[in-house]
Amino acid sequence: MAKERTFAMLKPGAHQRRIIGEVLSRIEKKGFNIIAMKQLCITPELAEKHYGEHKGKDFYEPLITYMTSGPCIAFVLERENAITALRHICGATNPDNATPGTIRGDYAVITRRNIVHASDSAESAEREISLFFSDNEIFSFEDGNDRWY
Q1: How far is CA 48 from the centre of its chain?
Q2: Which in 72, 109, 123, 136 has the greatest CB count within 10 A?
Q3: The pTM is what?
Q4: In-domain check, residue 88
């Protein structure tokens, strides 16, 4: 199976709760290569583009407010079956339904303020990656960069 790329983002709650390192460690331990990463404060315009498919839903405005309330960390991750694997380790969006041992099952408390976003399809991953990263900000391990150590 070929390597696949996906997009992930740690939301402001991960910063507020000081659990960024723990979440990153879980992702890396599951075999993901972090091939791009940046910390940023998301503008309302970027948040609206990112979550545009939810416009008009009752949770849309509170989500935009939350996502623009503090810094986030955006990632491009790579491994075989990346999209499905990441969604599995993130767990159900509703923390009450998330299995213990998943990121949301262990750390999230409120659905509308869960701490991680993960792309749900190849199309979403491609769109979300392009919103947050340019090609020159992504460093694939296939480029020979796995020999840094």
Answers
A1: 16
A2: 72
A3: 0.89
A4: yes
Distance (Å, rounded) from C-alpha 123 to C-alpha 99? 26
Q: Is residue 114 part of a domain?
A: yes
pLDDT at 25: 96
Q: Residue 83 carries which side chain, given as an amino acid letter? A: I
CATH code (residue 124):
3.30.70.141
pLDDT of amino acid 50: 95
Give yes or no: 88 in active site.
no
Record the tokens describing residue 60, joined without a space. 């849309």
Q: What is the pLDDT of residue 77?
A: 97
H or E element in which residue 64 lies:
helix 60-67
Catalytic residue among 15, 50, 54, 117: 117
- Number of domains, the chain: 1
pLDDT at 142: 65
